[in-house]
Amino acid sequence: MIMHVLSVRMSSAVKGMIRIMKIVVLNGSPKGDSSVTMQYVAFMQKKLPQHDFKIVNIAQRIKKIESDEQIFGEITGEIKSADGIIWAFPLYVFLVHSGYKRFIELITERAAGDIFQGKHAAILTTSIHFYDHTAHNYMHGICDDLNMKFYASYSAGMHDLFKEKERAKLLDFSQGFFESITRDAPAIKVYPALINQSQEYVPGTDLVPVKTHGRKVVVLTDSKEDNINLNRLIGRFGDLLSGQVEVYNLHSLDIKGSCLGCIRCGYDNTCVYSGKDEFIDFYNSKLKSADILVFAGTIHDRYLSSLWKTFFDRGFFNTHTPSFSGLQIAFLISGPLGQLPNLRQIMEAYTEWQQANLVGIVTDEHPNSAEIDGMLQELAQRSIDYSNLRYVKPATFLGVGGTKVFRDDIWGPLRFPFRADHRFYKSNGIYDFPQKDYSSRMQNYFLGLLVKIPFIRKEIYGKLMITKMVEPFKKLVAKI
């Protein structure tokens, strides 16, 4: 009895020594509390009830946060009093949702960066692992820019919460984060601060016009009047193509809002915004019908603007099917893209996933305007040449790997609700599972039996492997 009382008292004393932490969870889902990501946070709350979790719905309320500085001030007040920050969000087109991106821009615009300085931070995402690393790299970079003490990131598969092993991993991650706060663990910065070294771009007077051969060239931009270099890049590119370029500005387009994550488009690609703004008609009539599509933008933090992110998010009414297949795509960028390999990879991966051809990326980073003129000249020439040839270079891992991720999930857990994807994948041969390659299966079976015999195995792996592997290729080249 005495031992029991002592045990209870000791237990109470230990509990009294546990530091109760305030953790602010910045929710990047446009669905707010109904987000899958927030269910992972709910699991953390249930397993670690001694801590105070304050969930702030950012993406869902971004319009109010942007228009009402008092609300923004209330959020930054919560952050100021927090022991740790969890950036929690679902993946949206290689990155965070546009509303989350806008909030990050507001931090700079409203000089609120000091509030984040020194705060312990972690990243929690949910996805099917389609370019989750680019989103994590982006947010890690933002944490470094804000001088936060970044702990680590956790990329949960969408359905991991149903798996005991994965729940244990998430709990380990959560406890590790809290322990790092307790010991005030330092962080090693991974991403250096960006230095914009771009100088004023002044196009030359000499140019060699490139014949368009009737190709439809569309430039889409978010440029403003004070984006001098970007406007000049666009103007020079247009002049090189004899002015036969259609230029559209996202600021002039009626876009009621960003993607809501409602998956209304899943059945037949009909968006909840259909008939309510200009976006879908513009996308289908102006962009899909182009031969050459040029995206022109300025670097904002470690991406383009949140308006550009709205464009890419709203393009999800096509769900997981390519909408620019066969097009030539180019980028005109103002800002330090050379210091952002993560953003360059997003551009490359987006183009490959779209089954389009990346002609090139021209920036204003070069100090010599004549050199930039030469790059634009070549970009214009290649755009037309590639378009005439209908050329699309072979996909790299960026395109092949991404497509396979979608293939497997649309075949399996995401077939419902993404019925439109399933129909497209089925009719376009994207369900190219190796299990259906019966000739290879038969060959593997019989050769597998043969190499179990020692002298045959020695012969094949000792002498025949290299010569037999290249033999069919030699025969093909000889016939050609």
From TrEMBL:
Keywords: Flavoprotein, FMN. SUPFAM superfamilies: Flavoproteins. It comes from the Bacteria. GO terms for molecular function: oxidoreductase activity. InterPro entries: Flavoprotein-like_sf, FMN_Rdtase-like_dom, ISF_SsuE-like. It comes from Desulfosporosinus fructosivorans. Residues 21-136 form the NADPH-dependent FMN reductase-like domain. This is Flavodoxin.
